[in-house]
Amino acid sequence: xxxxxxxxxxxxxxxxxxxxxxxxxxxxxxxxxxxxxxxxxxxxxxxxxxxxxxxxxxxxxxxxxxxxxxxxxxxxxxxxxxxxxxxxxxxxxxxxxxxxxxxxxxxxxxxxxxxxxxxxxxxxxxxxxxxxxxxxxxxxxxxxxxxxxxxxxxxxxxxxxxxxxxxxxxxxxxxxxxxxxxxxxxxxxxxxxxxxxxxxxxxxxxxxxxxxxxxxxxxxxxxxxxxxxxxxxxxxxxxxxxxxxxxxxxxxxxxxxxxxxxxxxxxxxxxxxxxxxxxxxxx
Length: 283
Ligand SMILES: [Mn+2]
Prior knowledge:
This protein has helices at 22-32, 53-73, 88-98, 131-135, 141-144, 168-176, 190-204, 235-244, 268-280; strands at 2-8, 39-45, 78-81, 105-110, 158-163, 180-183, 207-213, 251-257. By secondary structure, it is of the alpha/beta class. It has one domain: Ureohydrolase domain (Arginase, Chain A, 3-Layer(aba) Sandwich). It has an eight-stranded parallel beta sheet with strand order 2-1-3-8-7-4-5-6, sandwiched between helices. The radius of gyration is 17 Å and the shape is globular. Manganese (II) ion binds next to loops.
């Protein structure tokens, strides 16, 4: 079995400069220890280093978006390894672009943060904190340039899970849109929650995506992230939950983002990424 995978070597959406190595490090891990079950076909994407950071990220998102649409055709579910979480603007826009407007994408977003800022509300201006606003169709003019589609995810088909750090303005935006949020302290059984969320979305949606920001996991299990937040689900719980949904028909892609090798401890977070991929495949 061959898995199409998009690896994104970019930190353009966040403050750190070390978050673009996950795909290459993961590729090396799989080269070292072949599992015999599947082979990953890597499509490595880099910023083109021309012009401003913003211009580079706008073009990179367009490229991710095209690759995402292409990977979907070649047989889902495909894998996306960031990079910072702004890659979601490319990944999910690419899938939305392949869908008729009457067909819906459901998106499950596992993250410590809401990622629902716009340039007008973000204190930092970091785009990795904004993809949800764009996906919902709430981007301001500047953010819209980074999101290469005019298709959006309906609020009722977006599920945020694991949240425990956010600013009031992004929370207000999601509240206005009636987006479903499960805060980290509300989770008692992640496997059950993820399975029932997938089942629920499969009634209304043609395709379902899962986007993981590694900071959803407790820092003791995933120290190698850009923006660690205390609390959170344990690595074991996440691996088990991902494994429980791996054969669900409508799941079209798994995205894993925000790995920062600089703060990783004994490759714990890198091995977590690999365990998540191993848990999700073979489909
Ligand atoms: Mn995120």
